[in-house]
Amino acid sequence: MNPSHVIAALLGVLLTVGGCFSPKPFDEAAWQKTVAATDPAKLYAPHRDSEGRFYNPWLKQDKSTWDLFRWWLSSSSLPGLQDEDFSQPAVANDGAYLKNPAAPASLTWVGHATYVVQWEGQVVVTDPFFSNRAAVVERKIPPPFGSQALPAGVVVLISHNHYDHLDSDAVAALSQKGALFLCPLGLGDLLKEMGAGQVRELDWWQSLEHGGTRFTFLPTQHWSRRFGQGYNESLWGAWLMQRDGEKIFYGGDSGYFKGFKEFGRRWPGIDVALIGIGASEPRWFMHYAHLDVPELFQAMADLGAKRLVPTQYGVLKLGDGPAAWPSQAIEDYVKAHPRWKGRVVLMPVGGRLMLQPGP
User: What CATH number belongs to 83-354?
Assistant: First the structure.
């Protein structure tokens, strides 16, 4: 049987009998105290054990497989929120400008974690995902365009191997266009099995220059696993793109950790920060590997970013609550904290944000 069918069947059973547990309590103050006690020097420490598995040396993962099942079997931590009460805006966009090397610099949201950066003739795609589902999770809003809209020779940045960030169909399609794939350690062979021809693996803090852009792979507080790769057999991380004075941070998946402050210290003046928010609830289960809304803004402050573009909401339902709910939570937070007004960009799927020229 196809592994995805096995997962679907198991998930269906769990959802059928779900709700038999209440959400576990969570001590936010204790968690923040734990984060504050971590040693930032360990951001540069070895992060692979004797068995070849990667880990976060400043703070190891604190959840088990049973915790995952407990979440699936629990009632929602956001019971008052209904899908029909929240909608994700989308606009038509065929992406035709992406094949025009003279087009002005811009950022386009294809949906979830997939963004297309176009600057000075170069096109960069983050975690391309054009499929109808990520493993068993169905897409709620179709992408405005697929791989056919992208020019030949794009640079593809992969943050980690989870299905909503690594789509085998997208890898195969972009490989036919001569794409260069930049990925974490341990992921190159899997990408080649998917059809990728040009692959470069990077470790944390390593950089590579290509087509006038400097790409640096950075730590995140996350983990990895998928069929074909065991637990933490490949690394995970974020990407920093630098070109002619412009800096774009793409955060992949991460919980809150002191890495954000270190990135801001080493690369001051980040222009745009793409940071994920979609799978923040239930907090007791998600706190290690995903940000909630206050942590999202703390990460932006740590980075010293001029503009924040929240990512990974509205398209896939990956946590408790409606997929589009985070945008409302972000708007409510900005109203309560007006110093962020004008610095947060909630894009529609298919939306295009013009980038500021460098100095």
Answer: 3.60.15.10
